[in-house]
Give the backbone structure.
Amino acid sequence: MRHLLFASPLVLALAACGLNGTDRDEGGKQAGGSASQSAQASTADSLLSHDPTGNAPLDPALADDKPRPTMQAQVVLDRLGFTPGVVDGAMGMSTRNAIKGFQQANDIAESGELDEATKRVLGQWSNIPATRVVTIPADFAAGPFYETPDEPEDQARMPGLVYESLDEKLAERFHTTVAVLKELNLAGSPSTSPLVTPTPTPSASSAGFTPKPGPASFFRAGQQIRVPNVGADRIDPASVKDANWLATLRMLGVGSEQPKADKIVVDKSSGTLLAYDTAGKLIAAYTATMGSTNDPLPLGNWKILGKAFNPPFAYNPDLFWDAKASDEKAKLPPGPNGPVGVVWIDLSKEHYGIHGTPNPETIGRAESHGCVRLTNWDAARLAQMVSGSTKVSFVA
């Protein structure tokens, strides 16, 4: 199985995984190499961040519409690689982990809080607002969008495990949740009617199976919306040889320039994945989901054997303790809503790896089948940071 991770197409047979630097210059999850992926790449760039150069003041026209201090800190931390999971303006576990990572990297006492010392250092990015306004490109909004079936046999008949709605796709592009996007864009109370009544994506038959369109979206093409101001999203197309992976990075708002990791440490006690450079300096910190009672995290030192971008998934019920007796083997198509999301980083521990997820809001809160699960955007970043020479340690 492992040697196949260096070939294409790739099929993963995983026992442990379930179904279930800031950009200072002004300037993907359509997996599987679909035609729409290439078409969307050009318009996706219109969603890029546009920051003041250096310490230049922010153009007043680009200022936030109201103070959002916690979200502003999350946005800066996300840009620097100390990611708060989803950017939601809430001081939760993932945000505290991000703050601790930033504090460690900057020799600040690790309180996990936005204390005065931490705010002082973060203050150099005070000209980065918490949100920005973007216009939804027509190609970005075009889909296709299909409901993800519950059963593996039905998932295997899908043309791709794509986003269920434009809302979900936008949330992932801006490292947040649909609920946060709606809150940022409702004119009144949460009971306000949706801004639009969109038309569901038409279904397309595949092998006699008709996918069900996803739910109606709150947002529409051409609409101006306020989003979390995530950045560090500039991409050098010449540095990414895989066109499908290039489109995925664009769809995820993940830049192509990432620091190189000499070592990564998955820490069970803190629920984090930490990346260090050759000098031993912490360069990234992600909250992660790792292991369960039935499939505990395999402690020890491991090697990285390969990386698979936008991988399909070979579902084998014999390898899952919670599989149904009626389940059969199935090859699931690629897609951001697939079991391992947009990337699989293969480890020398058989059937174990580091990968993305279709459910970013559950990271750090739900159990896995033993693997290390990150948000798709964090997994995409990490995949560009590691290589076969990167050391991997799983510690208690």
About this structure: The first helix runs from residue 35 to 44. Confidence is low (pLDDT under 50) at residues 1-42, 188-200.
